[in-house]
Amino acid sequence: MSPPPILIVDDVTTHLTIFSATLEAEGHDVITARSCQEALKLAQRHTPDIALVDLMLPDGDGVALIAKLMSCVPTLKPIAVTAFASVDRAVSAMRNGAVDFLVKPLAPDQLVSVVNNALAGRSIGQLSEESIARSSGIAGEAGSSQPMKEVCETIRAVAGSAAPVFITGESGTGKVTAAATLHAQSGILTGQFVKIDCSTTDPERIEAELLGHAATADHAEKTGAVERAKDGTLLLDEVCALSPIMQARLLNILQSGRVTPLGGGAPYLMSCRFVCTSTPDPAAEVAAGRFRADLFYRLNVVPVHLPPLRERGTDAIEIAETELDRLCAQEGRPFRTLSNGVKSVFLEHTWPGNIRELINVIWNAALLNDGPVIEISDLPPYLRGIRPSPDGQTGLNNPRFPGRTDPFEGRTLAQIEQQAIEAAIQAANGSVPAAARALDVSPSTLYRKLENWGKPVRGARKG
Asked: How far is residue 294's CA from residue 254's CA, in Å, rounded to a whole number?
């Protein structure tokens, strides 16, 4: 008797053709559907082992379809597929039974690997509690250093609690990823993971984003983040950037447990878990009078601090190798490992951009060079310690970047930072919030630095 087929659900003919050909070449039987309705009929008729489900379908939501397919075929192992790398949708798909999650475009090797892992019971959604306890907890970004082991242990210990969690750390350390991991390990089967970026959302709209707005003559009905996160997790990213007025209103919500939408809507009970992040030290923000102490104590029930990459030993190498494998599978690149010289550079570098910087370095090296080993010569110039020669050349024959000089030569770190910030503000036509979004920092951080440099712009603060 032949094994059960693999069901592929996608409304794009090209995707169906490529996915089917790849899996059939591996010896799998494949059936295809272009809609939710067709997928349910095929599942009832053929009881597939695996279902690759696109999350954007013409007649419904792929996340909801996964739940329906599992009702029809309890032994099914769904794999969510989407063109949008969204933490919210990934977590929602996993909560509805998906055993793994793929982002288009898919390399053939990546597709085959994920399907084989699902069939063998090795997908993340199929791991036992004991396996999860042994894992790093923050996918691809934890490493094996003792500081990160402690972080992961804390996340696992409090995941099932409703207690608020406050995650701190430098930019690029993975605070949002840690928050998503906390939600994923919480065991919440119905609630969503909802995020509000307090540093980039328009200050005039953030109240409506948080609380929602009743339908009025001048305003359409809007569901607030608190309501969307019902029985789930609400992440307030960079919460210290909230205005004093919004801090007071958030404190009132936490104290009363009730939310009243703007425009006269009926109040409702809050039933979500609050997780907050902050790049600036929130205790320092409290001491400086920029963040309410009473709100901080409400939110800081479980503090989690993500250490910078430079304090995590060999984690930089482990993360780089993991990211290299993932990227090469996705992009079809031939790299397989890092040279010993590159490993030494990674251990010596201070990584001011932390994990985000490291991933960008790997991406740059893998896309612009040929493998199979990443060498020092493949790294961006600033990591090679290159000094420009008097004629302005880099000193190396680099045909990809002819004439590129070291932009940091002769400047202190403070001068480099000021130049980068001023350039970002200029590129954003003078908008500090827009520049903050580009630099991935809080607008309040830029305002303070500008004031320290004798360039106050408080009066010009615009969206």
From this structure: 11
